[in-house]
Amino acid sequence: MRTPRGKMKSQGHLLVALVIAVVPLAIVGAASLSLVFTAKSLRFASLVGATDDAGVGETLAGGSVATFARSPGPLVKGKAAKGASASQSTSGSGKRLLVLGGNGFVGREVCRLAVQRGWKVTSLSRRGQNPEPNDEYLAAVSWVAGDATELDTVKTLVSENDAAVHAIGLLFDVNSGLKGLNLIVSGSKSVAGQDSTYDNITRKTAFNLIEAIRQKVQLPFAKPTPILFVSAAEAGWPQVTLGAQVEVAAPSWLKRYLVAKRAVEAELTSFPSEIRPVIYRPSLIWSWTKFDVLPVIPVFNILSAVGVPFVDKTVTVRTLSRAIVAGLEDDKVSGVQRFMQMEELEKQLS
After folding, report:
1. How many Å apart are CA 80 and CA 102, to the nearest integer?
2. Which residue ranges form the domains of the chain, and what is each CATH number?
3. How far is Cα 173 from Cα 252, in angstroms, rounded to an integer?
4. Residue 209, CB half-sphere, CA atoms under 13 Å: how many?
5. Of 21, 93, 242, 286, most Cβ neighbours within 10 A?
6. Within 10 A of 313 (CB to CB), how many other CB atoms are there?
7. Chain centroid offset of residue 218 CA
8. Which candidate, 111, 146, 143, 142, places its Cα nearest to that of 126?
9. From first to last of its 350 residues, what are the pLDDT tens digits of the chain?
10. Contacts of residue 13, Cβ cutoff 8 Å, sequence gap at least 6
């Protein structure tokens, strides 16, 4: 028996309304739940020997929350160890990688893995501090304090590196009305300053990176420079069924968040002869040591599993970081990578 068209339309509207209610609440709820779980999480992490206690990172698209309420001054390079003592892969072949936001939830995992694979890694962040000083691989990273919203700062570092990862992010900007939650969800425990808008922290820092690479002197017939950008699954809503309807009813802070992400995606793909763009669109990013976000994970995974087109399966920080490094090392990888592609890329490093 065929379902009447009116009933199908009604069911579609009901589904949209349900997810409109669930997704933003899940995002904010993940931050709120952390108030309950933080003490237990840190205590358990110390018992199991976990060293990452700097927060869950961005809920939608993981990264270091960068705030530039006041200028950190000129570039300050921290001391880097001569190299990790454990055996390393030579996949990077001594190439140089710049990570914007390397002290965040995702950024530090990218730095750690890249060092293991033979890359010489530099991280740029506001503080320029190693989030895990006792980690042998992170000790091999050159930690630089600087302002990524300043083009000259980014140009200086781009000139010294062969590829770049943009893992700077801000879930709740200064105009969201929820900026205090960044203290909980931020990978680096940063708080949104007066200039910490989505446009500054996401779009401007990424545009500076793109412009710096375009201005860099390139050898004739050189391959395009890889830029790997951590975007958000929700940036793809206009391309999926009912996604546009969900976004119309989304809260204003989420709409502005996605405007900034999409602006970067569009700019990255505008210069194919100069830049090889790899755009990662994760939904929630998590790890087993982050109890505060764990209760929300099944909501997204169940909705994705039953076929809700505008909700993507979650990814672990391990999957995302390994997919980023795999995309960095594989010249054939380009364009948007959803959770399915991330899981496949992760296998390349297994």
Report:
1. 14
2. 7-348 (3.40.50.720)
3. 11
4. 34
5. 286
6. 20
7. 27
8. 146
9. 555 555 545 544 545 555 555 555 555 444 444 444 433 333 333 223 333 333 333 444 444 444 333 344 557 666 444 444 444 566 766 899 999 999 999 999 999 999 999 999 999 998 899 999 999 999 999 999 999 999 999 999 999 999 999 999 888 877 777 766 655 555 555 666 678 899 999 999 999 999 999 999 888 888 999 999 999 999 999 999 999 999 999 999 999 999 999 999 999 999 999 999 999 999 999 998 877 678 889 999 999 999 999 999 999 999 999 999 999 999 999 999 999 999 999 999 87
10. none
> CA 288 → CA 44, 56, 255, 275, 295, distances in Å?
11, 11, 29, 35, 11
Task: Single out the residue of 198, 181, 150, 134 nearest to residue 30, CA to CA.
Answer: 181
**Most distant CA atoms of the chain, gap in Å:** 71
Q: Are the beta carbons of 164 and 329 closer than 8 angstroms? A: no
Global pTM reads: 0.80
Other C-beta atoms lying within 10 Å of the C-beta of residue 249 = 13
Element (H, E) at 250: none
Place of tokens 């501090």: 129
Residue 76 token pair: 């300050």
**Is residue 315 within a helix (H) or strand (E), and if so which, with residue range?**
strand 315-316
Q: Are strands 76-77 and 142-145 parallel, antiparallel or unpaired?
A: antiparallel
Helix (H, G, I), strand (E, B) or coil at 134: coil
Q: Which helix (H) or strand (E) holds 286?
A: strand 285-286
Which amino acid is present at 347? K
DSSP 192-236: --TT--HIIIIIIHHHHHHHHHHHS---TTPPPEEEEEE--GGGG
Cα 158 to chain center, whole Å?
19
